[in-house]
């Protein structure tokens, strides 16, 4: 039997995935006063180059670790697939000691007895331990299991009266063919208690039981010891089928001698049928990118070759900001139907056309057009960046909250309009932020909005505190004690992957599909019916722009029209990116949109006046802003007008109402620019989730002409 591509069933069966479980025994001790803190890095060889697949967690003070982090890799019977494993001892602050390494192939692992392979780690000619690899075939199941576990009447394994057991638990799944116990999860220890209540666990069904709901799952209770020599207390078994849909289920715990040693209670146990990321894409969901770039003084002047924003006009080498924009933006734009991206800057004084101010702004459009901050495709993103970096005065400090608040407003507006859109805020920054409290409050408030936040740390700064925002375990709390409802932040330091854009994009975006699905499940939205296109009646001229064909197909005997060329001008006569935008399409009159009266305040949030910045002022601007003699330059920000009137006019201007606006109204509209002062006051509504209209929603426009040198390098 063959599939649609002519492959036989045997070939399709050979293209499976294997999950690799890693353990080590007898590692060399690299520390003097304690034991090694090992972790393992896995590499795969592609095109004669080693590429990192991933890393296990770090286990403290243990020479015989069993790692819970596993590696999933595609398996091809007809290929060798070389692999390399490196074991290091973590010394903190990015420092490590090399313990040993070993090379093998995936075929060697798959063909081993019971798919268990033991290999000697070596450092030169010296043996430094044993690496144990166990493989299990992956069953592709998207279901998720939610459980919350507590225990009662655990025995006290400590002898001193002022010490008490610090319990944690481990979950093991069992291979049917070999009865091997595979560690799939290890909880955090609860300090000095015999009645622990552990936090809620969200785990994939594939991870816990490989989709077999009758598989026995072993739960073991251990007493945590700082030396790493943890002591086993008791254990029991359960299955997903036994507990699914039930609450407050108790099971007796037994020690090694089969003696009763307390009880464990499953306070909550849910099996959720989780749709896939592709299910939502096929039903019309799209991803819209929002970009934000750090222009604070710590980046140094773009004229300085050591600057993170340095523009290399001689060798045309991209800086780290450009590399990250290109690596991540190109992938996300594949899922954006109209390819239009709002792009903002923060932490500087803009000297842009129609946006020139001595005030430090923490959220402003890079194209200098607050009414339409969007640019088109990757070319527009790079043009906007290249234009703005030469026309801003770097300042500070570094604030994230205004950018997040602006993204929340856009996401809330689209959510209120029932658009099938999910937003990704992509922030590029070079250091620690100075409004952590307000940023955390906004992130927690974003749980119920169609929004994910990706942060890439550029440069060599200490990004340790950024891990607070990237909370995969659900421990992030705002200043009011509220916990985030889902994981929506991903932080990646650029320097770890600066020589490998493919690996950078993988680490930045690997959590995004699950974040989108988790949001849809949180609001109770299931995938809609798949959009069906009858290719037998498909008119390529009618759907060319909708499905990404940039120019209409020519009819027979139709001569091709010449495309006007955009002159390539060198700075300072470089026009702003907004000059490349197409004129607005004719008014849309098929549907009249009547905005509802909002229940929130009619003004944008007002922040107290910013004090004089203590950051050193830069010298005279090296690159003067463009000189537009025929247009009057505006000083930013002007007085704020009524928000409701602004919203209605904005909708009309973007062809939602299809009404005519006279010149006076249009001029008044153009003078209404968003005002951001910082730091913010304590908001009356801490969640910050008031729906506000989207000033940036635009009807699709024909794509602009792309110049020969699209990135302006």
TrEMBL record:
Looking up Pfam families in the UniProt record yields:
C2 (PF00168), Copine (PF07002)
Region annotated Disordered sits at 551-636, 668-713
Keyword match Repeat = yes
Name the keywords, alphabetized: Repeat
**Superkingdom classification of source:** Eukaryota
Q: Where is the composition biased (Pro residues)?
A: 573-588
Q: State the CDD domains in the record.
A: C2A_Copine, C2B_Copine
A GO biological process held by the record: cellular response to calcium ion
In what ranges is there compositional bias, type Low complexity?
Answer: 551-572, 589-636, 668-700
According to the entry, every stretch annotated as the C2 domain falls at: 1-119, 125-253
Please provide, in alphabetical order, the Gene Ontology terms of the cellular component aspect for this entry: plasma membrane
Give any GO molecular function from the UniProt entry.
calcium-dependent phospholipid binding
State the PROSITE patterns in the record.
Answer: C2
Task: Check the record and name the PANTHER family matching this protein.
Answer: C2 DOMAIN-CONTAINING PROTEIN, COPINE
> How is this protein named in the record?
C2 domain-containing protein
């Amino acid at each position: 039997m063959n599939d649609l591509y002519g492959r036989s069933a045997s070939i399709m069966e050979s293209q499976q995935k294997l999950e690799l479980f890693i353990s080590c025994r007898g590692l060399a001790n690299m520390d003097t006063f304690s034991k090694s803190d090992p972790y393992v890095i896995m590499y795969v060889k592609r095109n004669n180059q080693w590429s990192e697949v991933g890393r296990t967690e770090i286990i403290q003070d243990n020479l015989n670790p069993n790692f819970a982090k596993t590696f999933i890799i595609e398996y091809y019977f007809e290929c060798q697939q070389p692999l390399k494993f490196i074991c290091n001892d973590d010394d903190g602050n990015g420092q490590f000691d090399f313990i040993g390494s070993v090379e093998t192939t995936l075929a060697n692992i798959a063909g081993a007895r019971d798919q268990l392979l033991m290999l000697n780690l070596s450092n030169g000619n010296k043996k430094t331990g044993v690496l144990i690899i166990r493989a299990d075939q992956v069953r592709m199941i998207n279901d998720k299991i939610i459980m919350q576990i507590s225990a009662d009447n655990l025995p006290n394994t400590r002898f001193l009266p002022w010490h008490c057991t610090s319990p944690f638990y481990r979950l093991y799944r069992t291979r049917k063919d070999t009865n091997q116990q595979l560690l799939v999860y290890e909880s955090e220890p609860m300090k000095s208690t015999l009645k622990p209540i552990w936090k809620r666990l969200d785990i994939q069904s594939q991870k816990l039981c490989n989709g077999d709901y009758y598989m026995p799952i072993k739960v073991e209770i251990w007493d945590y010891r700082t030396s790493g020599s943890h002591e086993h207390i008791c254990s029991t078994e359960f299955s997903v089928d036994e507990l699914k849909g039930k609450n407050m289920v108790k099971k007796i715990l037994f020690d090694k001698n089969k003696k009763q040693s307390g009880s464990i209670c499953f306070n909550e146990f849910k099996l959720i049928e989780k749709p896939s990321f592709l299910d939502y894409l096929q039903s019309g969901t799209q991803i819209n990118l929002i970009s934000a770039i750090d222009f604070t003084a710590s980046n140094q002047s773009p004229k300085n070759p050591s600057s993170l924003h340095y523009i290399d006009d001689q060798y045309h080498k991209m800086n780290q900001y450009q590399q990250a924009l290109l690596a991540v933006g190109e992938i996300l734009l594949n899922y954006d139907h109209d390819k239009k991206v709002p792009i903002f800057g923060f932490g500087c004084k803009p000297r842009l056309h129609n946006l020139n101010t001595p005030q430090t702004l923490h959220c402003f459009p890079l194209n200098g057009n607050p009414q339409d901050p969007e640019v088109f495709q990757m070319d527009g993103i790079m043009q906007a960046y290249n234009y703005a970096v030469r026309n801003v005065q770097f300042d500070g400090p570094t604030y994230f909250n205004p950018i997040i608040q602006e993204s929340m407003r856009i996401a809330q507006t689209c959510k209120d309009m029932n658009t099938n859109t999910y937003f990704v805020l992509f922030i590029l920054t070079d250091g620690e932020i100075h409004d952590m409290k307000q940023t955390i409050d906004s992130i927690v408030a974003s749980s119920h909005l169609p929004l994910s936040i990706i942060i890439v740390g550029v440069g060599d700064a200490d990004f340790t505190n950024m891990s607070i925002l990237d909370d995969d375990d659900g421990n992030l709390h705002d200043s009011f004690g509220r916990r985030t409802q889902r994981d929506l932040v991903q932080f990646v330091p650029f320097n770890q992957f600066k020589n490998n854009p493919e690996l950078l994009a993988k680490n930045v975006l690997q959590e995004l599909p699950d974040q989108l699905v988790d949001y849809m499940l949180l609001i109770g939205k299931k995938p809609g019916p798949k959009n069906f296109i009858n290719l037998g009646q498909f008119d390529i001229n009618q759907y060319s722009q909708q499905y990404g064909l940039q120019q209409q197909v020519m009819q027979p005997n139709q001569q091709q029209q010449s495309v006007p060329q955009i002159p390539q001008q060198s700075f300072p006569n470089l026009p702003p990116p907004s000059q490349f935008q197409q004129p607005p399409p004719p008014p849309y009159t098929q549907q009249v949109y009547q905005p509802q009266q909002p229940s929130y305040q009619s003004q944008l949030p007002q922040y107290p006046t910013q004090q004089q910045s203590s950051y050193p002022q830069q010298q005279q601007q090296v690159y003067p802003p463009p000189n537009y003699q025929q247009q009057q330059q505006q000083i930013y920000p002007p007085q704020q007008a009524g928000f409701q009137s602004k919203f209605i006019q904005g909708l009309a201007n973007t062809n939602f109402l299809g009404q005519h606006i006279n010149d006076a109204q249009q001029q008044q509209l153009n003078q209404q620019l968003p005002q951001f002062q910082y730091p913010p006051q304590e908001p009356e509504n801490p969640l910050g989730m008031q729906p506000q209209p989207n000033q940036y929603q635009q009807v699709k426009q024909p794509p602009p002409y792309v110049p020969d040198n699209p990135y302006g390098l």
